[in-house]
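hiii, so i know i said id send this last week but things got crazy w the move. better late than never?? heres the sequnce for the chain we talked about at the cafe, plus the structure i predicted for it. fair warning i was half asleep when i ran it
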Amino acid sequence: MGSSEQHILVTGGAGYIGTHCSVQLLQEGYRVSMIDNFYNSVMEAVDNVKELVGPSLAKKLQLYKVDLRNIDELEKVFSLNRYDAVIHFGALKAVGESMQHPFRYFDNNLIGTINLYQVMAKHKVKKMVFSSSATVYGQPGKVPCVEDFPYIPMNPYGRTKVYCEEMGKDVQKADPEWRIIALRYFNPVGAHESGKLGEDPKGIPNNLMPYLHQVAVGRLPELNVYGHDYPTKDGTAVRDYIHVMDLADGHIAALKKLFTDEDIGFTVYNLGTGKGTSVLEMVAAFEKACGKKIPIKLCPRRPGDATAVYAATDKAQKELGWKPKYGVEEMCRDQWNWAKKNPMGYQKKA
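okay and structure toks below
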């Protein structure tokens, strides 16, 4: 069966990673159904996906405004289409917010995923690529993080990802026909090179890149750097940043593995670059890309944040044949291109 026949359901499809991944899927010849509740995303992003892929591929994209917590709505989408696999992005993802509103995270990330598994099982769709996260490692005893490290999540968001992974293992054990790949993302950044898609968080950004973006275009006065006394080269936290287009390609590689490997069972892969970059190094790279000085304010550490986390990427390279193409320079270049063209994100210019 050629990929042109294969129909992929993408939950959270209108979100940051969902849109970039959907573009890649359509360009690779898959049919795509997006579902999204638009809690953290906007319709303009979906319109831009269609514009990017052109009218003939846009015909292969369907959109359903559905909340995963509403099992009847979800059921309806599955009864309208025959899906070959699901890529499950639909979740809330801010560490800080999860510390303040744990119930919001349990409700959205856990109930949504339970419903999805139930409806998939009922409709015999037994292939899933699951969006997991490096937060499941917490503050690892050593770095880089290898897939078989123990779970040590430090916040409710990370814990929801652990529970969802465990759920996947149980589902697969109970019915060996299931094939599930969990991709643990490190820190996705950057934007589509066209500048038509990018990250557009509502409210004050929780992640470094959109924050830099908003300071660079004058929406925010300065960048808050949380923690400058970490035991790292410059005192700021170290993370593994990965270009969102590399991440999208990782999903296509995982999908192909699901369709070709009968013994995948439940398998986990890290998606990162394998290199750690400190917050101040990232600021310097972004200043270079945008040609501006970014004013910073040193703040105390945030609860739930780890010192240094970066990925061991050998397993994805060996088993998925995937490796990242882009470095920090390209991440900043594409982020700035998106920022420059869309200073207010997807909001139409006033």
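btw The two ends are 48 Å apart (CA to CA). thought thatd interest u
miss u guys!!
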